[in-house]
Structures are given as structure tokens and as C-alpha cells.
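In the previous chapter we treated chains in isolation. Here, by contrast, the input contains two separate entities that must be folded as one system, with a combined length of 601 residues.
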Amino acid sequence: MTDNRQHRPQTRSLNIGDELFKNLTRFFAALILVLVVLMAYEMAVQSRLTWNKFGLSFLVRSVWDPVQENYGALPFIYGTLVSSFLALLIALPLSIGIAVFLSELAPPWLERPVSFFVELLAGIPSIVYGIWGFFVMVPWIRSAVEPALSSALGSLPLFRGAPYGVGMLSAGIILSIMILPIIASISRDVLRAVPRAQKEAALALGSTRWEATRIAISYARSGILGGAILGLGRALGETMAVTMVIGNRPTISASLFEPGYTMASVLANEFTEATSDMYLSVLIEIALVLFIITIVVNSFARLLVWTVTRRSTQGHT
Amino acid sequence: MKPTIRFRYRKFKSVLLYALCGLSALLAVVPLVLIFYHTLSLGLSAINLDFFIELPKPVGETGGGLANAIVGTLILVGLGSLVSLPVGLMAGMYLSEHGNNPFGATVRFLTDVLNGVPSIVTGVVAYTLVVIPMKHFSAYAGGVALGILMIPTITRTTEEMLRIVPQSLREAALALGIPRWKTTFRIVLTTASGGVITGILLAVARAAGETAPLLFTALNNRFWQTDLSQPMASLTVFIYNYGVSPFSDWIAQAWAGALVLMTMILVLSMAVRIATRSRFGRGT
């Protein structure tokens, strides 16, 4: 992060090789910029049929009828948001717990393997989560979790209905496992970056260890929030695992037991079946909406994590 | 009296909440253990030599293997590397050596943006860019999709690794009269090569496990295919297709595929971890 190299003597730039090389690398860097713009442009162009026909109302219509060529994206947007927020709701407290455990509690001999396990979780491919979720987790949710939830909290509309197994709840749970590593590892890093003096001051004032930890958590909260939003961004675009456990039915229902559909999974399921131009353009428009949502969410998260870790060292997540 | 009770309550709360933190760490390990256990136990029972050297059998016939899918994954990841390596390495070099300006900051930000783009969206873009003009699914399209996914990882690790190289090394080389580009290429990049290779391997491991961007680019193929302009099988798409099929034989093969895939990826990331730890003292 030093600026030394900006104060090069001017004579350096006389070397033709230098200029060539610099411009060559700049060309490739510019390719990344072009690529991102091209992605947005391509999707915008390929989805103009949908834009011309439905306009913005596409986002709030909830019909999905490929036979009648009548489309709306609301069930998918709803499914994506609900499953992702459900995942965040489950994963965030657990991640903070793990982060506190790793940064404050665990002795090194325990901290290393647990960190390693959590990072291994991040390396498992989505499709493996998918078949595991489909064959192992869904039956367990159907036979144990959903009946228990509906008998305990059945008065709430959230937990009503027949226990299918596949549905919004399963999608939220599998997603929470998948985003746990990213939130936990970022939270651990920002907790470690909290100055010792913060906690020592609290302890000196007679607080218990947990109260000192709470002060550390609130000191690091914007970084933790950034990690959470980064995890949310990951959940929004997650495809295979969700497709296999969410049930893939384009309906909006209050119950978490009911099947749903997400933007990513409708792309995975129906893209190769899209026979008409209109159908294809609708799906590409859904991809564009997903693209925009994830860019907004990720930019916000990056900004938060960046402002926090910039204070300590050159942080990279 | 009162303060003591209050103090005991606070002590108790402290212990309780710390216990909950430990419990959440334990909870996180449970799914990991379960996934490993099920993949291993269900996958091993379907793995045999045929799995690695035979082609998929038609519906109704048992046996067969996914040899073409394993090779297909390697080919697709290879294509992805061909697309992403030049861009990632060169852009990484630019960001580290010449990138302290607004343009560099923009590219850095967009690289992070690209990193957050869902892989299925990358697949859609590869479809519009390659499949629509070619009018059919192809390995090229799959390679482009995987390449786009790999670019951000390679770019950012290359940049970070080159930045770690001490400034004095660059200055020493320049003082000897070596041109700047040669310094970057022969001294800085060589010094950081271990870290750069780590980044590349991480990107490869991630690409090998991707399914979504291949679903409608490389599609799938039940036969040997060496023509890159034709649909190409991949391990991940096979796991998906077999996993959601109603045939128990196929489902068993899906688990076997998952086991092979996990082994590939874990060996790769384990190697990366060991290499990074010994080189830099800490993981990235």
C-alpha cells in the first residue's frame, strides 16, 4: 500500500518494453471491466422482449404460465429472499458463536482444527450439499423437524401445513450451512482485530468475561454485519443445493413447510426447456434481476468489511 | 447480599453464553461430519474400477461408469484455465505494480463484484455469448463460463501475493538496470510464484465443483467426446442428473461421483493449505 512506486524517475518510461508491458497488463485489467459491463449488456439485450411486454410489472406479477406465455417473477424473487434471509437468521447467531469461540475461548490446539473444519465446509461443492440435502436432510426434516415444529408452534401460519420435507425450511437450513463458513471466518477476523485495550478496559471495570466479549462484538459489529451481508449475497445466488431441496413450485405461501422456487433454481430447471424466444428472454431477465440484486448486496458488504479491516491491516476476505 | 447474587448471576450468564458459543462451534462441525460420512459410506459402495474406465450405461442396464464425465470435468476446467489465466495473471500484475490509481481501484472493485456474481448468472451470460451464436451447446461455452468464474480469484490472489514481495527487491533489480517489466516478470512474479500458484489451484478447485454454469453451456453427454464444439459431460452435471433420477443404480453412482469430486477438491485444497502454511506461516 505504499505509494513509493508512483515517484519513479521519468526516464524509466522511456523504455519501450516497460511501456508495452504496462499497457499489455492494463489491457487485461480493462478486460475485467469490459467483462462486467458486457455481462449486464448481454442480459439486458437478450431480455428486451420481456421488458417490452411487461416492463417493471414483471417484478410484481405472480403468474407463471409458459404455455400461455404469461410470466411474472414475484414467486422467484420471494423465494430467493425468504430462503436467504431464513438462512441468515439461522447462520448469523451460530457464526458469531463460532467466531467468539475461535477468537476468545479456544486454546490453539482446538482453535486450529475447528477453523480448519469450518473452512472445509466452505470447500464442499454445492452439488454435494444438494444430494446430501435431498437424500439425508430432507427425510430427517420431514420426519422429525417439521412435525416437532408444527406441534410446538403450529398456531403460527409459518409452521402450518403438511410436512413435505422439501420446501422453504429445508432450503433455508441447507443455505445456512453453506454460508456459515464465510460469516464465521469474517467475524473471527474482525473480532481478532478489536484492540485488546477495549476488552482490558471492560475487565478492569469489573465486567465478566462475557460482558467484555460483548463489548468486543459491538466494537466489531459493522465488520460482522459486512460478513453477514456477504453471506446473504452468497445465499441469494446459490443454485444446486437449493434446487434440490426447495420443491420448485412457483407459489407464494406463508408456511415455511410449503415448496417454493428461487430465481437461481428456475434458471437451473427451465433454461434448457425454454423453447420460445419469449420464454428464454423471461429467464434471462430473471438472471439480470439476480445479477443486480447480488451486485448491490455485495458492494454494500464489501464497503462495510473494507472500512473495518482497513483500520487494522490489509484485510482480504 | 444483593451484589453477590447479582454477581453470581452475571458469572453464570458469562459461563452459559460461552458454553453456547462452544456449542455452536460443535453444531457447525456436525453437518460436515455427516456429509463426509454419507458421501463416504454411500459413495464407496458404488465405486469400482468400472466407474473410472467405463461409459454410462443406457437406462435399465446396471453397471457402467462415468469415465467420460471425469475426463470432461478435467477438459472443462482446463478450458476455463486457458480463459482465465492470462486475464487473471496480467490483471493481477497490473493491479499490484501499476494499479494505484482510480482505474486500478475500479478494476479491483469490479473484480470483487465479479466474485459475487452467482455462478448460474455466469452460465446465462456464457449461453448468450457462445451458445446463441454457435446455435448449440458446447464445451467451449462451458469453458468460458468456468473461466469467467475463475478470473476474480486468480486476479486478486496474484495481486495480493505480488504486493507481499518486498519493495526493496524491486528497487534492487531496477538499480541493476533491469527494465521494470523484466523485474515484474522475472523477479517479482517468480518470488511470489508459490502464492500465485496457490490462487490458481483454489480457482481450479472451485471451478471443478461448479454445476450451475455448466447446465446449459456444456450440457451433458453420455459418450466420449473430444470435439470441443460439442456438448461435454462433467462430473457435477452427472451427479445432478443421476441424483434426481428415480433409478437406485444411478443414485448410487451419483454418490460415487460426489465422493470422487470431493476427494479431488479436498486433495487440491489440502495441498494448497499445506503449501501456504509452510511458506507464509498462516493461511490466506
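Chain A is about 70% helix and 0% strand. The mean pLDDT of chain A is 89. Compare these points with the single-chain example from earlier in the chapter.
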